[in-house]
Structures
1.
Amino acid sequence: MRLRQGWYALGMVGGLVLAGCEKQQEPPTVPLNVPAVPAPTNTVPREGSAPTTATPPVERVLDTGSAQAPVGSTQGTDGKASAPVDAGNGPVDAGSALAADATWTLETVEKKRSEPPSVTMSSVRTGTHEGYDRTVFEFAGPRLPGYQVSYVKTPVQDCGSGDDVPVPGKAALQVRFTRAQAHNEQGQATVAQRTFKPALPSVLELARLCAFEGEVTWVLGTTRRAPFRVLELTNPTRLVLDVQH
């Protein structure tokens, strides 16, 4: 009887030791209060709606190249570019150039490109953000056409008929694309709507002035001659024009 009790006690001790070992070998659980992953650097808010802290930035800046004037730099009548924009202090991804901090300006912003063939504009859209209105010109393919952005005298003219095109507001901000088109290979318009009336705090109306012989030109009727900035974005390929409120 004592021998049987001894074996029983020994079995109980062995079971407890084994359970303790198994408990020690259990993998640690993942805590529920893991901090959120921070948003990537060198990004700008998605166009079309005001940015919020709950939505991380998603758009990266397209490489602007070094042969021409940097995006956001200004050019005067002598054709010489002013000092480049502040590229920021954060790291820049390979193949990207930071233009999210492009200088706000009232001067002409120009990027010349002559690579054939023409690049097709696929859409135009607008939205408002805190402190500025955003207009986005999207293009098919991996590259942007050349462009010039500047305030122009009013009234502006349609490039085909030469007729005056009335735009509301006290200023007209013109965006002229070269080596660009707004139709597909079948001759159908890729941006059928020629005017937009978003009635935003700064941008009151957009009107297409030209889509002819490799040139596509839009004009923005603005409430005043407000500072603007230009960004080149990728995935998809876009030229972004922000106008301060």
2.
Amino acid sequence: MEARQKYLEETFEKLGICLSDEQSSAFLRYAELLLIWNEKMNLTAITDPQEIMIKHFADSCAVIGKELENSPKKLADVGSGAGFPGIPLKIVCPDLEIVLMDSLQKRVGFLNAVIQELSLKKIRAVHGRAEDLAKDREFREQFDLVTARAVAPLPVLAEYCLPFVKIGGEFLAYKATGAKEEADQAAGAIRILGGGKATIREYSLPGTDYQRSLIRIKKDRQTPKAYPRKAGTAGKKPLG
């Protein structure tokens, strides 16, 4: 366990993030819970503890973790799955107020178990499809930041996520390669949904050659009430 903690802390140090002992313990316990629950439900294909630290934890915090450390904001993590990037960001940035959203009740059960086990505050998991939750006044255009990681192509993802972003806030899409092509394909959809020009930041995960991208889209205008369309429509007929 000491070796894993050292590896974790050194990995985050390369990101410019100094973890406290409490934060390190939270990440290590999160990894344990992920592997335990993964035996009975599909949460991640990555099961090596060091790879979890790099490909899930570090990737979640690599680009935006440091800048959010002392900046209280409301964040929605759409299609949160096993909690990435929402839970790692919460561990690193405890002042964030976070809503994790997922369409599968089993995954929401896992997220709630992690929240309880790690004694995390001002974070909750909500069961529902993005298309439905975005019509709810409690969530629509209420967030400073909305994140999504490996959920769908950007033209589809923009329709899921931009309705949650308040004017002046940002939508952050975690991607691997091909981010510029996706951003170009999504330009029309982003404009329709009230977003501005997409900017892309490319990065590599510390100590590896894994190339990643973060697409940032600022919300300039209110999203028309017609969006998002009913469940399944965005995937079949992406905006353009």
3.
Amino acid sequence: MEQPAIEILRNHRIMTIATVRPDGWPQATIVGYANDGWSLYFLIYRDSQKFANIENNRHIAITIGSEPAELQKIKAVYAGCEAEEVTDPAEKSRAWELLAERHPNLTDLAPPQNSEVATMVAHCKHVSVLDYSQGLGHTESVEI
């Protein structure tokens, strides 16, 4: 049986990323992602606040989930991660393949140009799984 958190990561396409702004306030945005196990790949513009925030502080928080019709079916993942730009050409190519597979609308575009877009990876460090099918508010920590 697959680890429940990995199953949730595999079955979704959008995640919220929370970064820390220079003034100390949090900034949360959504991005499309694809995962390879506990590594989450996403693209961001180099001139974005999100990229500047990550360059300043690579610790981010992510949330992934959806709202089912029944409360007892809520399942989600939230995690503290370390994010960084992917610089290895082989890993960058693999990230693009994963993203294009998960987000077919990207296949109309060429792989992103380094000058405009950064390929990022968030490595999950502190993971929790929310699973209301085991009781309202049920949360389990996952060791990575």
